Amino acid sequence: MTRRRNVATAIVYGTLATLAVVFAAFRGRSVVSLEESWLGLPALEANVVSLALGAVTAMLVVMSTKWLVRRARWARLLHVEFRELLGPMSTVQIAFFALSSGVAEELFFRGAVQPELGLVITAVLFGAVHIGPARRFLPWTIWATMMGLVFGVIYECTGQLAGVVLAHVWINYRNMLFIDGYDPAPRVRGSVSDPGLVSSRLRSGSRAH
Known about the structure:
- By secondary structure, the protein is mostly helical.
- It has one domain.
- The protein is 74% helix and 2% strand.
- The protein contains 8 helices and 2 strands; from the N terminus they run αααααααββα.
- Strands 1-2 form a two-stranded antiparallel ribbon.
- β1 and β2 form a beta hairpin.
- The longest helix has 29 residues, at 43-71.
- It is globular, with a radius of gyration of 19 Å.
- The protein starts with a helix and ends with a helix.
């Protein structure tokens, strides 16, 4: 199962990245940079700013994700759903998936699609491909749309894809490690349940809707 999942990941994201590069080449432009940007910085400075914005964005998103899962019911339920959907994963598998998805999706959506369709439409499309198997995954779709806007703004500001790829890969990596390593389901220590974790009712309710 693990090997098949790794192969499927490589095929899907390899195809997506290839399509992005081929399409950009067909349009006669780079897939990793814009000819014009909002800030109009030279390439070196633009890359530095792009990487800085990407790093800050990644840190804020990773911290806010952990905060929400520990304090918001809907975030805990979504976290549990992803744990069940993804199953146990090794650090190497998580790194491979984070790198593959982050690079390929940014090449495709920001590098190939955004210059053609614009910031807002691209963000909506990015959110649309992050639709889960049930309505309870709707917060994930909304979150992905918002992140599509943030990534798109960084790209438009700097004209460089480096920082956006960094942010996407780092967010995927850290959040998947958190999903794999943190179980908010109820645990019993001796005869006393841990009150800081989600109740069994929430867990069973997440499957019922």
